[in-house]
TrEMBL record:
This is Pro-sigmaK processing inhibitor BofA family protein. The chain crosses the membrane at residues 6-25, 37-60, 66-89. It comes from the Bacteria. InterPro entries: BofA (IPR010001). Keywords: Membrane, Transmembrane, Transmembrane helix. It comes from Lysinibacillus xylanilyticus.
Amino acid sequence: MSGFVIMSFCVPVVLLFLYIIIRHAKMGKILEGMSVFWFRFAFAFLLLFIIHLGIGYAGYNVPINLFSVLTIAILGIPGVLGITALIFFL
C-alpha cells in the first residue's frame, strides 16, 4: 500500500475519533487525566536526570528506572524526597 492510501484511511479515522471525544465530556476528562499523568511522567524523568547529573559529582548514583519515575510521577514532591532519601541511606 502506498503512503497516500494509508493516510486517506488514517486521517478520517483520527478525525472521527477526535469528534467523538469532543462530543463526550467524560471521555475528554479521561484523556485530560491521562495527559496530566504523561506530563508528570516526563517531568519526573527529566527531574531524575537532573538529580542524576547533580548528585553524580558527589559520588552518589541515582537510578533512573521505571519504579523511580512512577514513584515521583504519582507522589510528586514526597516521591522525590523518598527516592533521594533511599539513595543517601542505602
